């Protein structure tokens, strides 16, 4: 049996349908998902406060993102009966556990994204010259 990331595989050994890593990337690769999780990292927060914290998110996208995160078990939604009802969101323990790898990716981005931009610019110059 080949290692999951072996480079000498005879048959395909990386599958989108069974790879847990790609399934998790589907969850967190949406730009709004990461921002919503970061907005909740300090604890319980109301919908309107999340919306205020995230520049450019529409009500529709925020609602869809929160519903998906709730479905995935990363976010807990609580409604306090009042007029109007108070809706608050918080990360579940599973959602909190995602903060550490997201922070690591954020640190990598802060440290390396300028290099990515430089590589893109170099590539584009060569590509246009051809």
Describe the 3D structure.
The chain is mainly α and about 130 residues long. Helices cover about 60% and strands about 10% of the residues. The protein has a single domain, classed as Orthogonal Bundle (Arc Repressor Mutant, subunit A). The protein contains five helices and three strands; from the N terminus they run H-H-E-H-H-E-E-H. The chain has a three-stranded antiparallel beta sheet with strand order 1-3-2. About 10% of the residues are buried. InterPro entries: HTH_HxlR, WH-like_DNA-bd_sf, WH_DNA-bd_sf.
Write the layout of secondary structure elements.
Blueprint: H1 20-28, H2 31-39, E1 45-46, H3 47-53, H4 59-71, E2 75-80, E3 86-91, H5 93-129
Antiparallel strand pairs: 1-3, 2-3
CATH architectural type: Orthogonal Bundle
- Proportion of strand residues: 5-15%
CATH class: Mainly Alpha
Work out the helicity level. Answer: 55-70%
Quick recap of the structure?
With about 130 residues, this protein is mainly alpha-helical. The chain has helices spanning about 20-30, 30-40, 45-55, 60-70, 95-130, and strands at about 45, 75-80, 85-90.
Which key features would you list for this structure?
130 residues, mainly alpha, 5 helices, 58% helix, HxlR family transcriptional regulator, WH-like_DNA-bd_sf, DNA-binding, HTH_HxlR, DNA binding
